[in-house]
Every structure is written in structure tokens, then in C-alpha cells.
Amino acid sequence: MDTRRLILLMVFGFSLFMLWEKWQAYVNPKPVAAPTATAPAGPGALPQPTALPGAAVVPGVSTANATPLPAGAQPVVVTTDLFKATLTPLGGDIVQLELLKHREHGDKSKNLVLFDPAHQYLAQTGLLGDGMPNHRTQFALAAGPTELAEGAAELKLRLSAPVQDGLTISKVYTFKRGSYLIDIAWEIDNRGQKTVTPFAYYQLQRDDVAPQGESRMVSTFTGPAVFTDADKYQKVDFGDIVKGKAKFAQKADNGWMAMVQHYFVAAWVPKDKTLREYYMRKADTVNGANLVQAGVIVPMPAIAPGGKTELSVGLYAGPQEQAALKQVATGLDLVVDYGWLTVIAAPIFWALEWIHAMVGNWGWAIVVLTIIIKLLFFPLSAASYKSMAKMRTLTPKMMTLKERYGDDKQKLNQEMMKLYQTEKVNPLGGCLPILVQIPVFIALYWVLLGAVEMRDAPWILWINDLSTADPYYVLPIIMILSMVVQSKLNPEPPDPIQAKMMKIMPFAFGVMFLFFPAGLVLYWVVNNVLSIAQQWQITRMIEAGGKAANDAKA
Questions:
Q1: Which residues contact 354 (CB under 8 A, 6 or more apart)?
Q2: What domains, with CATH codes, occur in the chain?
């Protein structure tokens, strides 16, 4: 296989990899060890875990949207510096959550809604045990503020369940200033005559429809995920849950359960060294979409008559900001998924953050990072361009061989190899250095695609969101032009079909990049411009040297 054909295959393979690698990871999640417990028998059943004696059935789908609320029991809206959370007295659950620092994909005048009634996306909690309140129980809101006061560090909201068998039970929400971590605690005061041993469940409910704003060219993961120290990060496909074939770690004394989507995540984070069981199940079908519930069951200590207890579990609901996620729980930053290139992508993102801290703009940070990466690979790129420049000087001789031996492929290849040896040109010299750089380029691609910091981040002039496509297609057009210039600097393939393909390729790439995020296109434009400058200089030097040598012989 000659050098040009190899380069052609590499470029096409690289483009296909960028487009489909994440999609394949989505539809074929990495298998994990089969769960030790039996699968749920149906929408209302969970496996009876041997490590959680007495675990009962978690109730099915909430009827919060269908059941009329009693007079005066209307939803409560809690406002903080980061959230506008709507809680319903039926279940005492968060049925809508606006993120005040982030905007909707289509309408930037509106706040992004993470827990969204349109997707039946909400956070539910309840207790398991005879007479215990769950997400179908009517709660009463205690008197108090529902807006975080100026200068206040936190806001508490207390919901009380009806007293039954002498049990006074409250659900307490604690919202903290500057934090996307909401603390949700159950408080039980046993004034009855018998000991009770309840279990608490915390679950996220959502349909299996991807959120608005997904790229038409690249699909990112949407669905539940589990992390434990033993089994690490495990994404679970909605389809496997619906079919009852989902495999994930179910029992542990560590880890978390999350619902992941592009740029954002909601995760239940029980305290470490606390026994828990994770579960996922199909709950219902609504308007043709499957409704899925993913949650965690946590035991509470036995409460003797006259005793009190409290169980608190954190709910992170916000952007996938890696520094913040690392502070919340071990492994939670893995929801920013770079796949098998994480070992390369993680330091690249760290470098991008560091540069942004100095320049104050994510667009310029991408430009500076691209220049740094180009400098690091300067020797490899130089070797590649020198090889291509030498091949370019051999083009007339290769065309002569093509005309002379065009009908004899074997003889043509033999003569071309003799030419390479005579001229001391390595036909693979132009592509091997590129192969070394490809993992870095792919890792940077996924960093720019997955970083929530790019969302709504402006660069200059018309580029006011690096995570969306250039609205006027200026960057893709510049990229096409830069690729055309690059193709002119490369040696022209002797094969007419390959030559046509190399001419078509810039425009084929350009069509794809019309729909790519502006941050990604910016990287490619800067990289291409730097490559053109380097390649032009090297080609000029090689050709000048060859001309001087020919003049000396004459």
C-alpha cells in the first residue's frame, strides 16, 4: 500500500472515529460483572437484598401530576443563588429544578430546567416500612422562608408527614449558597410503643428521551450511571433497563447513583461506609417514551420507643464542573466521560483550565492550547512535512514511472521502491508522525465536546457560544479554505482517483464541521493555519535545496 493511500485511509478513519466512537460507547455500554441479586420482578418490586434485611417494595410511579392537591397544598418554589426548585406537597419531592446560572439551549432568555416536567424528570425520596411516608404521601410545609436571604449561608425547608403510630417524621431540605449539592434528610422521632427499623430510598425518575440541544453529528450519553470502588464507573443504557437486562453493581458501602446527560448530572451521594443497594427499573410508558427510575436504598438504624434518628443523603444537581464534582464524591468527575483516552484528556483539560485562568476567555484558551500542542509536536510534524516535501519533489519522476509502467502494477511498485531508495525517501515518513499525534487530537476533541465550561462561553464578535455551531458558518468556511491550501502543499497522488478524493476531502470535512461546536472548529482552524505555515516553510526549504543541488550538477 503506498503512502498516499495510507494517509487517505487514516484521514477517513479518523473522521469516522470522531463521529461514531461515542455513539458506539453509548449503545454498547461496557459490561460489568453480573449482579449477585435477582433482577426486579416488575415496576413495583425490588430484589430482597440479603445485606439489607427487611427491605420492602419501593412504590411505583408518582401520581403528582394527576392527583388533585388539597386546598392550600400547592407546590412550593424555593429560590437560592443557584436554584429555583419546585417541590410538591404530594411526596415532598423536587418536580422541577431551574439552574439560574445556565441558559436553555434554544432560548437564551430562559433558565435551563434540569428536572423537567416535559421529561418527567424529578427527584423522589421516601421511607420503606409499615405506615412509613413515601413519594405518594401528602406532606405539610412548616412555616418559614422559601428564599435564601441576602448574606445567609443556607436555607432549610421542613416538610412533615402525618403522625402515625406515634412516629413524627420530617423531610428536611438544606440548600447552601454557592453549592449545587442539596442535603435531604429524614428525621424520625419515635413516640410510639414499638421499635421501628425503616429504610430510606432516594430515586431519580426520567424518560429515555435525549435532552434538547444534542449534536446532530455526535451523540453523547444520556442515562443512569453507578460508581463503586470495586466496579468503578458504569454507564447503563436505557434500552437494557427497559428489557430487564441491565447489569451494574447493586450492593456496596460506597459510591453513588446518577442520571447523566450532556453537560449536566444529578446524583444521589450517600455517605461512605454506609450500606446501600442500587436499583434501576422501567416504571411506565408515557406518550411513547419509557419512564425509568434509578435509585438507592439506605438502611436506617433501629429506633426504640422514645428514640430519635436522622439519615442524610446529598443530591448533586448541576453542571459537570470537574473541580466541584471531585469535592462531592470520589469518581463523580468521571461523568465527564472521555472514554479510553481519559489518561490523555484529563491533563489536556487541566492545561486548558490553567490557560483560561490567565487569559480569561475560553476561546483564546483554545487558541493558546492549540499553539502549545503544536509546539510540543513540532519535531514530529517537521519530520512528517519534510517527508511529504521530498515526496513532492519526486512527483514528476513518479508520474513518469506511472506512464511507463501503468499497466504493470508489480513492476510499477518495484520501480517506485527503487526510486525511494535512490532518493533516500521513506514513503511512511509522512504518516507515522501523524499516527503518534492522533490520540492527542482525539482526546482534545472530546475535551472540547464534553466540557460544560464551553457552554455559553463567548469568544469574539459573532461567536457567543463555543459549544454550539458557528451561526454564520465563518469558521467552517475558513477551515475548508485552510484544508484546500494544505492539499496544495501535499504531493499530488499519481492515481487519478486518489487525487480526486484528496480534492473532495476538504469539502466533505467542511460539511461535517458546519454542525460541530464552534470551539472544536476553532481548534481545527488554528491547527491548520499553524500546519500550513510550518509545511510551507519546510517545503520551500526542501525545494530550494533540491534546486540548488540540480544547479550545482549542471
A1: none
A2: 3-19+349-553 (no CATH), 75-335 (2.70.98.90)
